[in-house]
Specification:
L-glutamine binds at residues 47, 240, 242, 268, 271, 309, 311-312. This is Carbamoyl phosphate synthase small chain. Its EC number is 6.3.5.5. The protein has a 10-stranded mixed beta sheet, with helices on both faces. It contains 10 helices and 19 strands. It has helices spanning 39-43, 98-104, 115-125, 139-148, 176-181, 202-210, 224-229, 248-257, 268-276, 363-371; strands at residues 4-9, 14-21, 25-33, 51-55, 59-60, 79-81, 84-85, 108-111, 128-133, 167-168, 191-197, 213-219, 234-237, 263-266, 281-297, 303-314, 323-329, 335-340, 345-348. It is 22% helix and 31% strand. The chain folds into 2 domains: 4-148, Glucose Oxidase, domain 1 (3-Layer(bba) Sandwich), CATH 3.50.30.20; 158-371, Rossmann fold, CATH 3.40.50.880. It is an alpha/beta fold and 373 residues long.
C-alpha cells in the first residue's frame, strides 16, 4: 500500500503526495533544479547539503543509477521531490533504481505532487525552509516546525562536507565519451594543482586531471602555509554549500594565497575569491540550479549554456577597480565570472565541469593549465 508523505513550507503551504525512498522526517531549504537529466549528479553534489531539491522535469528515474555518475561518496540532499518516479529504469548502465538508491542512503523522496505549483511558489516567494515527512502528517505541526527552521543565510554548511584529510586524486580523468566531447587527450606535461575542497564535485578533479594536472585535494579549511608547503603550480577553489560570508577563516586564507600562485575558483570558490578580493556577496531570491543557464563571456562575446547550482552571488558593483567582470548571466545580469587585471587569478560562478550539462565552458580548465605555465 502506498505510503503518504507531506511537504510543509514555512509560509504555511502543505503538499501531500506519495513517499518513496526512505521513511522518516527531514528538513532543509526547499529549492528547484530545471535540468531534464542529471538527477544522480544533483543528488550527490555536496553543494546541495542542507537542501530539499525539487526537479522541474516531470519524469525522473528513467535511466536508473550507476556509480560512474556519482559526484561524491553518497547523496548529499536532505530530501528529493519529483512529479513522477519511474519504477522501472531502462538503461544498460543502470545498477539500481532511484527508489532503491534513496532507501539505501536514507534519503526521503516525495512524488505525485504538483511540482509546477511548488516551483511557482518558490519563484514568487523565494526559497523557503521546509519539512518533509512520512511520519508526521499533521499539517499544523509540520508548518510550525518549518517556520522555526533557520534560513541558509549565515550558515556554514561546508564543515558538513569537508574531506577528513588531504589525499592525492588517483582516479582517472574523464570517461572516454566525455573526453572526446570536452577536452580530448591529456597533455604530456603535468602541473601540480592543490584543490581546496569545500564540497568538491568529483568531475572537477576528473577535468583537472584530463587537462594535464596532478591533483592533491586538501580540506577547504587548510592553512595557507600548509597549502604552499605542497609546492603547487596552481591552486583550485571548489564548489560547496551554504553562505560564503560565513567562512571567514577560508576568506583570510585566500587573502594570504592571492598573488603567490595562479588561482582558479568555481561556484563557492568564486564567491570566496570575490570576498577575499574585497567584494561582497548576497543571497539570490531562488537561486540558479540547472543545466540550461545562458552566460555571456564578455571577453569573447560568445554565449555559453552552463550548468549552475548556487543560491548566493558576488555583487559586481562591490568589486575593486583591479578586478573585472568576465561573465554575466543573461537571465538576471548577475555576475558569473571575474578575473584580476594584474594577477593570475580568475573564477566562474557556474560549473564548467558540466556534470551533468553542456560542455561549452570546458576551455576554462585549459586556460588554468596554461596560466600555470
Amino acid at each position: 500500500m502506498s505510503k503518504i508523505a507531506k511537504l510543509a513550507l514555512e509560509d504555511g503551504t502543505v503538499f501531500t503526495g506519495k513517499a518513496f525512498g526512505a521513511t522518516g522526517t527531514t528538513t532543509g531549504e526547499v529549492v528547484f533544479n530545471t535540468s531534464m537529466t542529471g538527477y544522480q549528479e544533483t543528488l550527490t553534489d555536496p553543494s546541495y547539503k542542507g537542501q530539499i531539491v525539487t526537479m522541474t522535469y516531470p519524469l525522473i528515474g528513467n535511466y536508473g543509477i550507476t556509480t560512474d555518475d556519482d559526484e561524491s561518496q553518497r547523496p548529499q540532499v536532505e530530501g528529493f521531490i519529483v512529479r513522477e518516479l519511474t519504477p522501472l529504469p531502462s538503461n544498460f548502465r543502470s545498477q539500481i533504481d532511484l527508489d532503491g538508491y534513496l532507501k539505501k542512503n536514507n534519503i526521503i523522496g516525495l512524488e505525485k505532487i504538483d511540482t509546477r505549483a511548488l516551483v511557482r511558489r518558490l519563484r514568487v516567494r523565494g526559497s523557503l525552509t521546509g519539512v518533509l515527512s512520512t511520519e508526521i502528517l499533521d499539517d499544523v505541526e509540520l508548518t510550525t516546525r518549518a517556520a522555526q527552521l533557520p534560513g541558509m543565510t549565515g550558515q556554514d554548511m561546508v564543515k558538513k562536507v569537508l574531506p577528513e584529510k588531504a589525499f592525492s586524486w588517483d582516479k582517472e580523468g574523464l570517461l572516454p565519451l566525455a573526453e572526446s566531447m570536452m577536452m580530448g587527450p591529456q597533455p604530456t606535461t603535468k602541473r601540480h594543482v592543490v584543490a581546496l575542497d569545500y564540497g568538491m564535485k568529483w568531475n572537477i578533479a576528473r577535468c583537472l586531471t584530463q587537462s594535464g594536472c596532478r591533483v592533491t585535494v586538501v580540506p577547504g579549511t587548510a592553512k595557507a602555509e600548509d597549502i604552499l608547503a605542497l609546492k603547487p603550480d596552481g591552486i583550485f577553489l571548489s564548489n560547496g554549500p551554504g553562505d560564503p560570508a560565513a567562512l571567514g577563516g577560508c576568506i583570510e586564507t585566500l587573502q594570504e594565497l592571492i598573488g603567490k600562485r595562479p588561482i582558479f575558483g568555481i561556484c563557492l570558490g568564486h564567491q570566496l575569491l570575490g570576498l577575499a578580493l574585497g567584494g561582497k556577496t548576497f543571497k539570490l531570491k531562488f537561486g540558479h540550479r540547472g543545466s540550461n543557464q545562458p552566460v555571456l563571456n564578455q571577453i569573447t562575446g560568445k554565449v555559453e549554456i552552463t550548468t549552475q547550482n548556487h543560491g548566493f552571488a558576488v555583487d559586481a558593483n562591490s568589486l575593486p577597480s583591479e578586478v573585472e567582470a568576465t561573465h554575466i548571466n543573461l537571465n538576471d545580469q548577475t555576475l558569473e565570472g571575474l578575473r584580476h587585471k594584474k594577477l593570475p587569478v580568475f573564477s566562474v560562478q557556474y560549473h564548467p565541469e558540466a556534470s551533468a550539462g553542456p560542455h561549452d565552458s570546458s576551455y576554462l580548465f585549459e586556460d588554468f593549465w596554461k596560466m600555470m605555465g
